[in-house]
Amino acid sequence: MPRDIPVGNGSLLVTFDEQYRIRDIYFPYVGKENHSEGHPFRFGVWVDGAFSWIDDARWTRELRYLPETLVTDVRLTNDALGLEIVCHDAVDFHENIFLRQLLVRDLSGTAREVRLFFHHDFYISESEVGNTAYFDPDARALVHYKGRRYFLISTDAAEGVETFATGRKAFHGQEGTWRDAEDGTLSNHAITEGSVDSTIGRTLRVAADGTAEAFYWIAVGKSRKTVAHLNALVRDRHPQALLRRTKDFWRAWVNKNEIDFGNLPPTIVDLFKRSLLIMRTQIDSGGAIIAANDSDVTARATDHYSYMWPRDGALVAHALDMAGYSNLTRSFFDLCGRIITPEGYFLQKYNPDGSLASGWHAWWDARTKERLTPIQEDETALVIWALWNHYDEFRDIEFIRPLYHSLITCAADFMARFRDPATGLPRPSWNLWEDRYGVHAFTCGTVVGGLRAAANFAELFGEAELAAGYRHAATEICDAMRAHLFRPELGRFARTILPREDGGFDVDPILDASLCGIFYFGAFAPDDDTVRATMRAVAEGLRVRTHIGGIARYEGDGYMRVVEGAREDIPGNPWLICTLWLADHEIATALTIDDLRGVTETLRRAAERALPSGTFAEQFHPLTGAPLSVSPLTWSHAALVTTVMHYLRKLESLQACDSCHHPLFRYDRRARRRATYIRESTAELTND
Question: pTM of this prediction?
Fold first, then answer.
């Protein structure tokens, strides 16, 4: 199930599924540890002798956010019970407190007693072993704890928790205390250890056709003292005040930069802001940008997406920098500077705390008995490329200075060295999709961008000889790409070639959306004939020709494939990032404002793929448009933000400089008040 409405603050992340059940609780890192392991926290209602959990089919659910905030706006209606419940959930922007406001409205026309039940299925530190749940008489609250992880649960009732139950779950056939709630009463069993769950109750008196209000919260910390303090804070300040300040903070955060959205429709502007907010929920305060936090994927893969891939992180950081959120990206680049290997490359992925994560790239070739470098080289290159773009936006040289040798030249020296001396191309590594090994067009494009970025930094720090070496290596790669990756027999670039022992190459002719890498990072001009031919082939060959539309990753993509058999109209499931890459090429080659009309249509169609809450999945069902794989995918939201920023900058440049028809422009932020633009070389990123 997708995670429709994540809420978080950088150290506590709470996600909900489409049935409005809490499914993931991450603390103290975004993406690590998951204290529910994907098990649902149920929410139920008892009224007039009848009980219903809100995941029952009789409930209708609308899951959205309040505009421009990370506060949910959820409407639950049950005509059979004659009730409507409006809920507002948030994680306080400053403290590790999950808050929920509930407005219960009678639809029956009679005064009633309504009992609300909140169930908690903790797997603290990702295990059901050794947990304890107990009623704390001092705080008048229920507490779950293990080791240095504490969760205090309470309500705004005068006596705190009115009624409760602790008990065993998933042990000798015991289902849990949620079953105890279904008769409308709880046992008040005060403590249980081992594999435990708990349920608390809150009673409301609702007038005929009236509304009653309640608040519920979970305080999270590393000690009983901490959560007791947070509980007292909620009671002293009142949960409504904390919700209000959190709403105000996120509205200020998402509007902190004055962006002129030009002729974009309000739906796209709203989705742009929503994407920024959702991206923020997936970023740990320590700098790790997490790919996705949707634990359902674990059931089919025995692993998850709650990791930092340097590739995803760099592209998300680039989007955030373009939108003006440099404070977040500095933490990411600092983390990269700490985790890069002494050899100068990044490994496949990392845990949110910066430790090395699980991986499947081999270090040893069993056939040749030789050591392998277990990398996707695009990840190393993209961090340096994104860092230059960060500096180019903000000119924060004091921030860059400590990273110059520890990160920039360390990575650049590796990229310049990790090449085939016969061709000048990068040596084989894994591709960005992580499913094949070879020399990839996308990887080559990123390495060119990364080396030129490093050259810019070297010039900035007065090392002209080093800069010249990096530029020369980048030029050699471009020449080799044209010589070996451009295939006349295909009339376009190939996505991958693999060197043979005889000096030739095995060519992979499959169309792949990642071929956008030949222009995206500056290796070739977007209006180069070879680039145009390649992108035209991608647009024609990978378009999903159903009413859903979009661009597939590559021909015959089998990952999460839902349509059996080969179909020319469905080369694979549509991916948002691939769809928007084509839009980015349209933007880069646009010479007039009219040339941008297709981009606005692509953005409008993209908006249709968002859930009502505004979240984007990794990919979509080609016949129904339903989200597939993880949701939200941070990269999907970053792609939307990046394309919007590309569009706005190109639109403004065309409006401001009608005589300048070069296909690429870079907005000079330092000359914003003069509204001037400077041309950017398509052969290299300039140092201004």
Answer: 0.94
